[in-house]
Amino acid sequence: MTEVKKILITDTTLRDAHQSLMATRMRTEDMLPIAEKMDNVGFYSLEVWGGATFDTCMRFLDEDPWERLRKLRQRIKKTKLQMLLRGQNLLGYRHYADDVVENFIAKVIANGIDIIRIFDALNDIRNMEKAMFYTKREGGHVQATISYTISPLHDNNHFIEMGKRLEEMGADSICIKDMAGLLSPYNVYILIKELKDKISIPLQLHCHCTSGMAPLAYLKAIEAGVDVLDTATSSLAMGTSQPPTDSIVASLKGTPYDTGLDLEQLSEISDYFKEVRKKYDIPLEAALGVDTNVLSYQIPGGMISNLAAQLAQQNASHLLAETLKEVPRVRADLGYPPLVTPSSQLVGSQAVVNVLLGERYKMVSTEIKNYIRGLYGKPPGEINPELREKILQGSEPVTCRPADLLEPQMEKARSEIEEYMEKEEDLLSYILFPQVALNFFKRRQGLIPELKEEEEKKAEEVKVKSNLDLSAIYRVDSSLLSDEDDDEEVWDIVYPT
Ligand code: CO
């Protein structure tokens, strides 16, 4: 018999929901007025930081992400604050040295985060070790994460073994992270039931509604004994976001699983975000609705709109369908990595290039090369031998933990950025996103024009670009990838080749 108990709720509205539905553009000023009300609901935790929010704050909103965290912490006094961390990639797109991981986590916790959800895009546990260690050392709650995916190589046993290992490594709880909404209700039931049998720490489930199955999966997960569910306020739920908090709470009312949360309070919060959403001019067509095709291309919520934007910029929107078909092929060539940042961007951008050039792997990004060299960790399966040979040319990929190859980064970076630093956290912002942070610091000091003027200038530049500009693919949104000839942001890689 599964023990029947009250379900706990993590509300993701201030992080994943707007990352999924509003391109991560919600401003701090729209979060603060409702923060206290959210604190009073009685959520298990509020996910408010990490993922893409860090980068977006500086790059698009001219905001300091650290400042956002502090302001939220001042207003949210009772509820635990939670963040999403990409293991050794922290909040960036490549691996950082251990001294950066250590300092970053210390600052995150000092600024108010209680729970750190730690994952690795390849489910390579070695890339999670240091982040888990330092989170524990700083007194934080380690939520170690299984990135769920479907492939010929991944079955429930694989995830259950991973869960057991994460518990042995000292995790305080386990999260199953279903980025693209792939978990079907009956499979999640089996997975959670078996996992709960094997581990003794709490189990949390994170699904996106992309395929339409998430609310059904949640119900079966509850019956299987899940402890905590991730949901978002109803006005920022569904589509590529999480299931609605309000509906889950209402569904469980009066049952042994009753969350005990007050629907009236939740409704006021939802009304607030309904208004907030109107302030942002972000088309929702791609993000809302249901798309079961995601079960094959497996692209996480926010990534589909990125692909569409990359193609539109190349006047190649008509190639979107072909690109979505190329994504699973590239993923298979790379040994079936789960698609989550940064592997989703690597695979997605390479698929765009393959389709645009009409020849597969005619051009290969530095990131894909590094992936094949083993510098993101161990891929789940074999790399396509032809592609492997083309990149490695007879040499062997590295097999150690990739960050073991990285020299400490903190002090070198400090000497580069000292004159712009106003606080120690600025150094970490700079190491994660050198160019973006530097521009942010310069704007802060009034040394360069404000973001708005700069954006307009950039928009003009884009207009006069030629039809097929490959470098733009690597720079669109979050400079997802950097081209080999683009020396911006490559200074910190000391990978051997
Ligand atoms: Co998510």
Spell out the key features of this protein:
alpha/beta, binds cobalt (II) ion, globular, TIM Barrel, 2 domains, 497 residues, 8% strand, Cyclin A, domain 1, eight-stranded parallel β-barrel, 48% helix, 23 helices
Summarize the structure.
This protein is α/β, with parallel strands linked by helices. It is built from 23 helices and eight strands.
Structural class by sheet pairing and helices: alpha/beta
As residue ranges, the low-confidence spans are 462-497
Radius of gyration based on Cα positions: 22 Å
CATH architecture of the largest domain: Alpha-Beta Barrel
Mean pLDDT reading: 89
**Main beta-sheet annotation:** 8 strands, parallel, barrel
Give the name of the CATH superfamily of the largest domain. Answer: Aldolase class I
Largest beta sheet: strand ordering = 1-2-3-4-5-6-7-8
Q: Separation of termini?
A: 55 Å
Plain-language structure description:
By secondary structure, the protein is α/β, with parallel strands linked by helices. It folds into two domains: 8-278, Aldolase class I (TIM Barrel, Alpha-Beta Barrel), CATH 3.20.20; 294-403, Conserved carboxylase domain (Cyclin A, domain 1), CATH 1.10.472.90. 48% of the residues lie in helices and 8% in strands. It contains 23 helices and eight strands. It has helices at residues 13-21, 28-41, 53-60, 65-75, 98-110, 126-137, 156-168, 185-198, 214-224, 245-252, 263-278, 294-297, 301-313, 320-333, 343-357, 366-372, 385-392, 410-417, 424-432, 434-444, 451-463, 470-473, 476-479; strands at 8-11, 45-50, 80-85, 115-118, 141-147, 173-178, 203-207, 228-231. Strands 1-2-3-4-5-6-7-8 form an eight-stranded parallel barrel, surrounded by five helices. α19 (424-432) crosses α20. The longest helix has 16 residues, at 263-278. The chain is globular and about 65 Å long. The protein starts with 7 loop residues before the first strand and ends in an 18-residue tail after the last helix. Residues 462-497 have low confidence and may be disordered. The protein binds cobalt (II) ion. Residues 16, 179, 206, 208 line the site of cobalt (II) ion.
